């Protein structure tokens, strides 16, 4: 039921473009067809994973792993992310296992335009976010 | 323990060990079943409430009828007394006593029904809230499971190769470099186009005899000066 919804969403999204004409390449991520992998043109390094169920459409992008974080700045990073969280439009920080992530959630009734907007914004936010937290990395630039 | 606490425990404990899922699909199936059962009993309770409310309405009607009858007979009794028929008045009064007795009984039953209905409504509201909470829980658990799976898949896809997940900064730099390159290309292309258009304009002006082939700033100035003097 949900998988059908995801499949039809993928089809629609694949035929769409973002507002800056960037195209999306989308494929099912797993055999069970429950997770889609969305790559925004020229930002393939940060794919967006999308799942759909009765409660929500979830878009997740992986930021960086725990191993990249400077251990001495770990607490400061966590606080910085928490404090940034509210201000970031539509997206929020989280963590899965030892991976820091950014995600956005939408109502399953969202229109295709709303989903596209979400993907575009999440993609932008991911780049901004990584730039903002590089000071906390081991190889601080 | 609240669902969030449970999740936190699960997430803290299990996830870092690769491949170990927080929630197995069996657990989700059980939750789904529980949810369906709760919804079924809720609809049963609602059906029960409907029939009890119907019964209550019946009693309600009875109470009203009896009250009206009491009033009616009180009227009769007064009329009998006005006519001086004491024995008739007493008979009517006895009837009233009978009616009032019945009325008290029915009012007691009605009150019982009212309490029952209020309680049932309360239970139904509570059940509905529980179901909503459970719905949310199932959704949270399902999402966690999905995220978990996506994470495992992503990890297995990227492990071994030092691509995406290896360094966020490197990836960001690559993206920015590509963007810069594209911007540079666009700027260069625009410049080129401007140049070409400029050349084209010069050529056309020359053909039209407006601009001298060897025209320079000074020669133009010279020409303009002459024009001014001639005026």
Structure overview:
The complex is a heterodimer of chains A (141) and B (231). The model of chain A has no long low-confidence stretch (mean pLDDT 86). The longest helix of chain A is centred in the last third of the chain and has 22 residues. Chain A is of the alpha+beta class and 141 residues long. In chain A, strands 1-2-3-4-6-5 form a six-stranded antiparallel beta sheet. Chain A has three helices and six strands, in the order H-E-E-E-E-H-E-E-H. With 231 residues, chain B is mostly helical. Chain B has two domains: 164 residues, Helix Hairpins (Orthogonal Bundle); 61 residues. Chain B is 85% helix and 0% strand. Chain B has five helices and no strands. Chain B is elongated and about 145 Å long. The relative contact order of chain B is 0.08. Chains A and B meet through strand 4 and helix 3 of A and helix 3 and helix 4 of B.
Please trace the helix and strand order of chain B, writing H or E for each element.
HHHHH
**Roughly what fraction of the amino acids of chain A lie in strands?**
25-35%
For the biggest sheet of chain A, the summary is:
6 strands, antiparallel
* CATH uppermost class of the largest domain in chain B: Mainly Alpha
End-to-end Cα distance of chain B? 100 Å
Q: Calculate Rg of chain A over CA atoms.
A: 16 Å
Structural classification of chain B: mainly alpha
What is the helical fraction of chain B, as a range of percent? over 70%
Number of strands of chain B: 0
List the helices and strands and how they pair.
The complex is a heterodimer of chains A (141) and B (231).
Chain A: H1 2-14, E1 24-28, E2 36-40, E3 48-52, E4 57-65, H2 74-85, E5 92-96, E6 99-106, H3 112-133
Antiparallel strand pairs in A: 1-2, 2-3, 3-4, 4-6, 5-6
Chain B: H1 3-14, H2 25-82, H3 86-158, H4 168-207, H5 217-230
Helix pairs in contact in B: 2-3
Brief synopsis:
Chain A is built from three helices and six strands.
List keywords for this structure.
heterodimer, A: 141 residues, alpha+beta, Yope Regulator, Chain: A, six-stranded antiparallel sheet, 3 helices, elongated, B: 231 residues, mainly alpha, Helix Hairpins, 5 helices
């Amino acid at each position: 039921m949900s998988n059908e919804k995801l499949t039809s969403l993928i089809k629609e999204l694949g035929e769409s473009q973002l507002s800056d004409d960037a195209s999306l390449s989308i494929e099912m991520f797993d055999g069970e067809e429950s997770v889609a992998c969305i790559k925004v043109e020229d930002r393939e390094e940060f794919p967006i994973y999308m799942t759909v169920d009765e409660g929500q459409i979830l878009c997740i992008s992986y930021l960086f792993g725990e191993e990249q974080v400077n251990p001495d700045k770990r607490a400061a990073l966590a606080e910085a992310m928490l404090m940034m969280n509210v201000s970031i439009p539509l997206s929020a920080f989280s963590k899965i296992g030892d991976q820091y992530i950014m995600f956005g959630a939408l109502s399953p009734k969202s229109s295709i335009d709303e989903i596209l907007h979400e993907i575009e914004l999440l993609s932008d936010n991911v780049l901004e976010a990584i730039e903002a937290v590089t000071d906390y990395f081991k190889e601080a630039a | 323990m609240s669902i969030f606490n449970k999740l936190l425990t699960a997430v803290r404990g299990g996830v870092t060990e690769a491949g170990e899922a927080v929630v197995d699909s069996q657990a989700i199936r059980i939750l789904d079943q529980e949810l369906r059962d709760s919804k079924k009993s809720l609809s049963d309770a609602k059906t029960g409430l409907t029939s009890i409310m119907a019964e209550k309405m019946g009693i309600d009607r009875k109470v009203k009828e009896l009250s009206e009858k009491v009033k009616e007979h009180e009227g009769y009794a007064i009329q009998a007394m006005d006519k001086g028929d004491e024995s008739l008045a007493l008979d009517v009064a006895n009837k009233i006593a009978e009616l009032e007795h019945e009325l008290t009984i029915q009012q007691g039953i009605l009150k019982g029904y009212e309490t029952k209905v209020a309680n049932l409504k309360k239970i139904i509201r509570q059940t509905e809230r529980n179901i909503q909470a459970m719905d949310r829980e199932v959704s949270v658990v399902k999402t966690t499971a999905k995220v978990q799976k996506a994470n495992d898949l992503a990890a297995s896809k990227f492990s071994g190769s030092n691509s995406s997940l290896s360094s966020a900064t490197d990836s960001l730099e690559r993206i920015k470099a590509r963007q810069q390159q594209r911007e540079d290309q666009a700027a260069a292309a625009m410049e080129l186009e401007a140049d070409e258009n400029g050349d084209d304009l010069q050529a056309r002006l020359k053909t039209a005899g407006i601009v001298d082939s060897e025209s320079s700033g000074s020669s133009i100035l010279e020409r303009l000066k002459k024009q001014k003097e001639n005026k």
